[in-house]
Amino acid sequence: MPVLGFLKVQKLTGLTIEKTMNIDQAKKIVISVISKILEGKSKITEDMQLIGGESLLDSMKLVEVCIALEDLADEQGFEFDWTSEAAMSKSHSMFRSVAALAQEFANQSEV
User: Which residue ranges form the domains of the chain, and what is each CATH number?
Assistant: First the structure.
């Protein structure tokens, strides 16, 4: 599956990503990316788990989400690092939920 481009996310969310983004913009982007990768087959919510037994994403689909977000960040002039030690920490992982991933995406846009 090809990585989602910025224009596709913009079309899905109606958002233009500014140099920095707020959490609501980030949530819409993350939800749109996940929905596209899951081919719209499931309703994506902010509290949806991204890892663990209740996740709708298998490991390959989660990597697709991260690569799509990485590409979007690159197009907007910031680096989205989803491979850091903090990302992999169970208690502080950005992969706990859609909201946590969106918060991290927004935070990294500000650096």
Answer: 6-109 (1.10.1200.10)
